[in-house]
Amino acid sequence: MMYTDKVIEHFRHPHNQGKLPDYSAVGKVGNIVCGDVMWLYIKVDKDESGREVISDISWETFGCTAAIATSSMVSELAKGKTLEEAIAITNRDVADELGGLPPVKLHCSALAADALNEAIYNYLKKAGREIPEMLEKRHAHIAKEMESLEKRYAAFLQAQEAAKEKEG
Amino acid sequence: MKRKIYLDNSATTPVAPEVLEAMMPYFAGAYGNASSLHSFGQEARRAIEEARAQIAEILGVDPKEIFFTSGATEADNLAIKGLALADPRRRHIITSQIEHHAVLHPCMWLEKQGYEITYLEVDQFGRVDPEAVRAAIRDDTLLVSVMAGNNEIGTLEPIEEIGRICREEGIPLHTDAVQAFGKVRLPMEAIDLLSVSAHKLNGPKGVGFLYVRKGLKLIPLLHGGGHERGLRSGTENTPGIVGLAAAARLAFSEMDEVAARLRDYRVRLIEEIGKIPGTRLNGHPTDSLPHIVNFSFAGIEGESLVMRLDEHGIAASTGSACSSPNLEPSHVLKAIKVPLAMAHGSLRISTGRSTKPEDIDALLSILPGVVEDLRAISPFKVGE
Q1: Residue B5 belongs to a domain
Q2: pTM confidence score
Q3: Which end of chain A is more exposed for a tag (fewer CB within 10 A), N or C?
Q4: Tens-digit pLDDT profile for residues B146-196
Q5: Which of B299, B303, B380 sits opposite A64 (nearest CB)?
């Protein structure tokens, strides 16, 4: 498996890592049992023409090289963008900007786009604002995926719990 | 340029200079086909039979019990499928959950053909209980296959006890000794079939052997010119076989000394890496191969860890899901019930005959910082 130079560069020197002290909203996606977790923090402010923009962004990620590189890249792509523009960022954009990802790692770019989606969704929700249909749909899809993941691993986790109890 | 440090010797090893030297005459000089009648062929035949005799002597077995193969994967397949084909009425195989895929996958394939396979559980260190082997044996059991030492966590299996039980019950015991051969003494009297690969012991890739106890009948997987007394057709890989024997001789001549050195490294790694918070040792602390040690680090993912170490010129490996093509964490870590989150953050360090104390120093000076760095960008903070 080979990563592009761009992936390696972002992995070695990730941009916008850490937790924003004064974030407006956070998007949390992934599941530790499957090995990738991404928390994306956004700070939303109005620009001079009164549009809402992502004035600052950061992330915390548990995951592989690709997960860290896509976290870094999605934060670069979304920084300074209006909410509308940021909503339009897809996993394809993230992977393309990195010069592509190995097929087995494409889900990492999906996770990055999902985290951004969820952060914006949570921001609008918290502000009691209307949620664009596309964003609502993607949110429902992400929630469903998280649920199926949890189900998929519930049996395994149960078995582990049982084993733990047995060990006392 | 920064010095590179290789701590992935259970993946493969460099060919030792004396092994390479032993092989060299058989590429372009003594290139004969060992099946040919003329002097070219006889020269190759002599080299191969000498190699066979040397390996047999090391193991204390008869040269007729050594069959050269393309490596341990082939040897494992030949032992399992070859025996199954030879004794088709026996439809049950006993193995363990922590075998190498070269044993597990032939078993799973046979399962699809209607065989029943018992995959024995292991304890928290990865050890098979010999009494569980006895309990699993049935009237139609064909074979017991349990590895000598595990390739991911290093744990040694109680092969002697398992072999004794198999002997009592009249069932042959196969052991994949890829990591153990040349590192620890093997109880050959307890073993009926044994797989070995050259490239794990400073020999060349693409060659290995299967030891088959006299009297055991196997059906070949490869049919052709009837090489290896009909069990493995295909023109013998003369330089490879010579290299395998040279590597085996080298490993056994220095085994005690090298094993003691590697064991010291292992003790030191366990002691020092154990000081990093949120660390777990996977495998047995002492009842282990000397050269393999495996840790998990909470809050971080193994592939990232391996890539960060690689930036510093250090080569190691991981059983993390992200490093595997099917995104499943290692079956060995699952079998010893490493919590899934920790299984994702595993690191295997495997030393070899050329590992120096300075290499261990370098790893120990770099690893804590790398772990800290990755934890700083992880949502899961250790100790919170």
Answers
A1: no
A2: 0.93
A3: C
A4: 999 999 999 999 999 999 999 999 999 999 999 999 999 999 999 999 999
A5: B303
